[in-house]
Structures are given as structure tokens and as C-alpha cells.
Amino acid sequence: MHGFQEAREEKTEGSKAFGKGNIMRKPYIAIIALTLLLCGNVYGKTEQEITFRSIPWGTSCAIVESQYFAFDFMHVTGDWTTVCSCNEVMYNNQFRGTRFDNNDINISASSFSYDIDEITVAGYALESINMYYAYTVSPDGHIQKSTDTSALYGAEYIFEPQDLYGMSGDIKEKLTSLYGEPDDMEEEKESLTGYLEIYTIWYGANNTKVVLATTEDLKPNGTFRLGNGLRIVYLWEEGDNLLQKASDAISNELKEAESTNYGNSNTDGL
Fold first, then answer.
1. From residue 241, how far is each of 119, 236, 268 by CA, in Å?
2. C-alpha R_g of the chain
3. Of 204, 223, 236, 270, whose CA–CA distance to 133 is shortest?
4. pTM of this structure
5. Measured between alpha carbons, how far is residue 96 from residues 87, 116, 209 in Å?
6. Which residues pair with 196 in a beta bridge?
7. d(Cα 167, Cα 203) in Å, to the nearest integer?
8. Which of 57, 212, 249, 259 is 20–30 Å from 159 (CA)?
9. How does pLDDT run across 172-185, given as a tens digit for each residue?
10. Distance between CA atoms of 116 and 125, rounded to whole angstroms?
């Protein structure tokens, strides 16, 4: 108590020495508070950008597959395919995340299981590698549907763990050694399906992140069960903006084509 009183007296003397020191500090406190408020949603406790296998985000599908991998990927494209927003990739759920007005604005690429037998990640064998690309838009506003004009915004490793807790704990430690302590964690328990989903998240610079996603089957003895699963997901959040621009470009092209019928005096079928 005596030490605390001395500290208070020392602080009081310091305030007297500065005269209006307490008042002068208020603007600085306000500025700091405002800065914290504005920066509250800024990504990243780590200053480094998080990438997938050191591949720069925005790299085209053609370059990724020709320069970074020694095997082919199966591409899924077209009007009938699901557009995977960043959250849909993270949660592995097509009902999560941003919805777009148009399809055929992206490429989903998956490895063939026999091609990745020689690849290990953190010492573990892989079940699959999935890559996600958005089509880009030309300077004149038209969508460019080509592997050469696509941009990487997401990727994931998929594993089939024999010991979910053992593997996830080990990979979490290894990710922590690279990016520091996790920035966030989400847990979702599906009472109907009987699955427990846990997402451990590390944020990086430039709106990047890596997510350790585990799925625990709480009803392992039931029929048609998927079992336990583990994924490591890498995302560049700019992907949603790229997808939106591609979707908007298609909408504009459709509107432009529709407008050619304006005032053409065509009354067929009327």
C-alpha cells in the first residue's frame, strides 16, 4: 500500500510539473482511440502475406499448373458449376458466403489422387489438392474465360486423418511456428448431421489467411457417414471482388445484347 501511495504522489508531482499535462494528453488519447477503431478490421497479426506454396495470389491457372506442379488438374467450369466464394471454400459449404448473379465466372481445379502420391505436407500424405481461380475482366469490360486470364484466389489441402486430434494438434503447432498464435477460432456443431466443425484461423497481410479446418464425426457408427476430415485452406479475400467483377461483366454483356432489340420493329409472336 505504501508503494502504491508513493507511485500516486510521484504521478501527481509529474502532472504538476507539466502544468496542463492531463488536458494535453486527451487529444492524443482520442487520436489513438480513433486509430484503433479504424484499424479494428485490418487483417493480420502477422506482417507477412500468407500464400499457398509460395505462389503469388492472382497468378493464372495456366502458369500455376505449368510452373508449380508436375501433374495435371481436372477443371470444372461452365454455367452449371457452383461459384465458390471465399467463405464457401473456407466452410466447404455452397450456402455460405457471397452469392453472384451469374455462373461460369471461375475455375475449380482438383488433383487426381494418383498424381499426388509422392507429395506430403507437414509430413502427411494428401487426399487431394483443390485450387480456385476467378476469370478476369478485360480493360474494355468483357469477361475473359481462359486459363491464361484467370487469377488464383484460393487453395486447399485435403487429408484423411486416422487420428484427427493428433494430426490437427501437430499441424496447428506447425502453422503457429510460421504465423504466430491463431487470430481466431470458430466452432459449429451440427445437431442434425452430427458433425463438429472447428476453424482455426491465421490472418496475413493483404487480406490473406490460412485456416485449419477439422470435421469430427460425432455419429461414427451411423450409415452414410463421411467420417473425420481435415483441410488446410489458403485464401486471398480479393477473390470475392474478382468474382463480382466477372459476374458484373456478364450482366453488362447480356444487357448490351438485349438492347439490340430495342426499336427494331420485330413483332414476331406478338
1. 32, 10, 41
2. 26
3. 236
4. 0.79
5. 6, 29, 17
6. 189, 216
7. 21
8. 57
9. 999 999 999 999 99
10. 8
